[in-house]
Amino acid sequence: MTARGARIQTVAAALALAAVTSGCSAVSGGGANAIEPQPPPGSCHARGSGLFSLPDPRCTPGAIDPAVRQANIAETICREGYTSTVRPPESVTEPEKRASLAAYGDDGPLRDYEYDHLVPLELGGAVNDPRNLWPEPGASPNSKDALEHRLNALVCAGKLSLATAQREIASDWVSALHSLTRP
Q: What residue segments make up the domains of the chain, in order of their start?
Protein backbone atom coordinates (compact mmCIF):
# COMPACT_ATOMS: atom_id res chain seq x y z
CA MET A 1 0.00 0.00 0.00
CA THR A 2 1.26 3.47 -0.80
CA ALA A 3 1.77 6.13 1.84
CA ARG A 4 -1.09 8.11 0.30
CA GLY A 5 -3.37 5.05 0.48
CA ALA A 6 -2.43 4.51 4.13
CA ARG A 7 -3.23 8.17 4.92
CA ILE A 8 -6.59 7.88 3.17
CA GLN A 9 -7.44 4.74 5.19
CA THR A 10 -6.38 6.48 8.42
CA VAL A 11 -8.53 9.52 7.65
CA ALA A 12 -11.49 7.29 6.69
CA ALA A 13 -11.14 5.30 9.94
CA ALA A 14 -10.94 8.52 11.97
CA LEU A 15 -14.08 9.87 10.28
CA ALA A 16 -15.93 6.61 10.90
CA LEU A 17 -14.89 6.61 14.56
CA ALA A 18 -15.95 10.27 14.88
CA ALA A 19 -19.33 9.40 13.40
CA VAL A 20 -19.83 6.61 15.93
CA THR A 21 -18.70 8.56 18.97
CA SER A 22 -20.72 11.63 18.03
CA GLY A 23 -23.83 9.51 17.47
CA CYS A 24 -24.08 10.69 13.86
CA SER A 25 -23.92 8.56 10.77
CA ALA A 26 -21.44 9.26 8.02
CA VAL A 27 -22.79 10.67 4.77
CA SER A 28 -22.31 8.36 1.81
CA GLY A 29 -21.27 9.10 -1.70
CA GLY A 30 -21.40 5.50 -2.96
CA GLY A 31 -23.66 4.32 -5.76
CA ALA A 32 -25.80 1.20 -5.98
CA ASN A 33 -24.29 -0.38 -9.07
CA ALA A 34 -20.60 -0.77 -8.23
CA ILE A 35 -19.08 -3.47 -6.06
CA GLU A 36 -17.53 -1.61 -3.12
CA PRO A 37 -14.35 -2.77 -1.36
CA GLN A 38 -14.91 -4.22 2.10
CA PRO A 39 -12.68 -4.10 5.20
CA PRO A 40 -9.77 -6.57 5.23
CA PRO A 41 -10.52 -10.19 6.23
CA GLY A 42 -10.68 -10.72 9.99
CA SER A 43 -10.54 -6.99 10.77
CA CYS A 44 -14.11 -6.62 12.07
CA HIS A 45 -15.65 -8.14 15.20
CA ALA A 46 -19.38 -8.22 15.94
CA ARG A 47 -20.49 -7.27 19.44
CA GLY A 48 -22.53 -10.03 21.03
CA SER A 49 -23.65 -13.08 19.14
CA GLY A 50 -26.62 -14.53 17.39
CA LEU A 51 -29.71 -12.69 16.28
CA PHE A 52 -29.11 -9.69 18.55
CA SER A 53 -25.48 -9.04 17.69
CA LEU A 54 -24.28 -5.60 16.71
CA PRO A 55 -21.76 -4.74 14.01
CA ASP A 56 -18.24 -3.54 14.77
CA PRO A 57 -18.57 0.26 15.00
CA ARG A 58 -15.13 0.72 13.45
CA CYS A 59 -16.14 -1.22 10.34
CA THR A 60 -19.88 -0.55 10.22
CA PRO A 61 -20.73 2.74 11.96
CA GLY A 62 -23.68 3.35 9.65
CA ALA A 63 -23.92 5.80 6.77
CA ILE A 64 -26.78 7.82 5.35
CA ASP A 65 -27.88 8.74 1.86
CA PRO A 66 -27.53 12.52 1.38
CA ALA A 67 -30.49 12.44 -1.04
CA VAL A 68 -32.86 11.60 1.84
CA ARG A 69 -33.57 14.53 4.15
CA GLN A 70 -36.27 15.42 6.64
CA ALA A 71 -37.64 17.90 4.08
CA ASN A 72 -38.23 15.24 1.40
CA ILE A 73 -39.35 12.17 3.33
CA ALA A 74 -42.79 12.25 1.68
CA GLU A 75 -41.13 11.74 -1.72
CA THR A 76 -38.54 9.25 -0.49
CA ILE A 77 -38.80 6.96 2.54
CA CYS A 78 -42.50 7.59 3.19
CA ARG A 79 -43.48 6.73 -0.39
CA GLU A 80 -44.61 3.13 -0.82
CA GLY A 81 -42.11 1.14 -2.86
CA TYR A 82 -39.26 3.61 -2.35
CA THR A 83 -36.69 1.05 -1.16
CA SER A 84 -37.13 -1.10 -4.27
CA THR A 85 -36.09 1.89 -6.39
CA VAL A 86 -32.74 2.29 -4.60
CA ARG A 87 -31.80 -1.23 -3.45
CA PRO A 88 -28.57 -2.48 -5.04
CA PRO A 89 -28.87 -5.51 -7.33
CA GLU A 90 -27.85 -8.95 -6.07
CA SER A 91 -25.02 -8.98 -8.65
CA VAL A 92 -23.44 -6.24 -6.52
CA THR A 93 -24.44 -7.35 -3.03
CA GLU A 94 -23.51 -11.05 -3.29
CA PRO A 95 -19.74 -10.46 -3.81
CA GLU A 96 -19.83 -7.72 -1.18
CA LYS A 97 -21.59 -10.05 1.27
CA ARG A 98 -18.88 -12.70 0.80
CA ALA A 99 -16.13 -10.13 1.41
CA SER A 100 -17.99 -8.67 4.39
CA LEU A 101 -18.36 -12.15 5.91
CA ALA A 102 -14.58 -12.56 5.56
CA ALA A 103 -14.03 -9.15 7.17
CA TYR A 104 -16.14 -10.28 10.14
CA GLY A 105 -14.33 -13.62 10.27
CA ASP A 106 -17.51 -15.58 9.51
CA ASP A 107 -17.32 -18.61 7.28
CA GLY A 108 -20.87 -19.91 7.49
CA PRO A 109 -23.15 -20.32 4.48
CA LEU A 110 -24.39 -17.07 2.90
CA ARG A 111 -27.98 -18.12 3.60
CA ASP A 112 -27.30 -17.89 7.36
CA TYR A 113 -26.77 -14.11 7.10
CA GLU A 114 -28.60 -11.10 5.83
CA TYR A 115 -26.36 -8.50 4.17
CA ASP A 116 -27.99 -5.82 6.25
CA HIS A 117 -28.12 -2.05 5.98
CA LEU A 118 -27.37 -0.89 9.54
CA VAL A 119 -29.27 2.34 8.83
CA PRO A 120 -32.01 0.79 6.70
CA LEU A 121 -33.02 2.12 3.31
CA GLU A 122 -36.44 2.92 4.76
CA LEU A 123 -34.71 5.38 7.12
CA GLY A 124 -32.48 6.92 4.46
CA GLY A 125 -29.51 4.63 4.95
CA ALA A 126 -26.68 4.65 2.43
CA VAL A 127 -27.58 2.36 -0.43
CA ASN A 128 -24.23 0.66 -1.02
CA ASP A 129 -21.61 1.94 1.38
CA PRO A 130 -19.50 -0.64 3.26
CA ARG A 131 -19.83 1.54 6.38
CA ASN A 132 -23.55 0.78 6.33
CA LEU A 133 -23.61 -2.90 5.34
CA TRP A 134 -22.65 -5.97 7.37
CA PRO A 135 -23.43 -9.69 7.60
CA GLU A 136 -26.20 -9.78 10.19
CA PRO A 137 -26.70 -13.30 11.60
CA GLY A 138 -30.04 -14.87 10.77
CA ALA A 139 -32.43 -14.79 7.89
CA SER A 140 -34.85 -12.05 6.93
CA PRO A 141 -37.32 -11.04 8.29
CA ASN A 142 -35.87 -10.68 11.78
CA SER A 143 -36.28 -8.55 14.91
CA LYS A 144 -34.32 -5.64 13.45
CA ASP A 145 -36.70 -5.54 10.47
CA ALA A 146 -39.65 -4.97 12.80
CA LEU A 147 -37.77 -2.08 14.44
CA GLU A 148 -36.99 -0.58 11.04
CA HIS A 149 -40.68 -0.62 10.06
CA ARG A 150 -41.71 0.88 13.41
CA LEU A 151 -39.15 3.70 13.18
CA ASN A 152 -40.18 4.41 9.58
CA ALA A 153 -43.82 4.68 10.70
CA LEU A 154 -42.88 7.08 13.51
CA VAL A 155 -40.79 9.25 11.18
CA CYS A 156 -43.50 9.32 8.50
CA ALA A 157 -46.15 10.19 11.11
CA GLY A 158 -44.02 13.14 12.31
CA LYS A 159 -43.54 11.60 15.77
CA LEU A 160 -39.76 11.14 15.43
CA SER A 161 -37.20 13.04 13.41
CA LEU A 162 -35.34 11.25 10.66
CA ALA A 163 -31.96 12.11 12.22
CA THR A 164 -33.00 10.70 15.61
CA ALA A 165 -34.23 7.45 14.05
CA GLN A 166 -31.01 7.10 12.06
CA ARG A 167 -28.86 7.78 15.12
CA GLU A 168 -30.80 5.35 17.35
CA ILE A 169 -30.63 2.43 14.95
CA ALA A 170 -26.97 3.02 14.02
CA SER A 171 -25.71 3.38 17.57
CA ASP A 172 -27.46 0.34 19.12
CA TRP A 173 -30.43 -1.16 17.36
CA VAL A 174 -30.88 -3.80 20.08
CA SER A 175 -31.39 -1.17 22.80
CA ALA A 176 -33.69 0.81 20.47
CA LEU A 177 -35.76 -2.32 19.89
CA HIS A 178 -36.06 -3.01 23.62
CA SER A 179 -36.98 0.59 24.44
CA LEU A 180 -39.76 0.63 21.82
CA THR A 181 -41.20 -2.69 22.96
CA ARG A 182 -41.17 -2.01 26.72
CA PRO A 183 -44.66 -1.68 28.20
A: 48-181
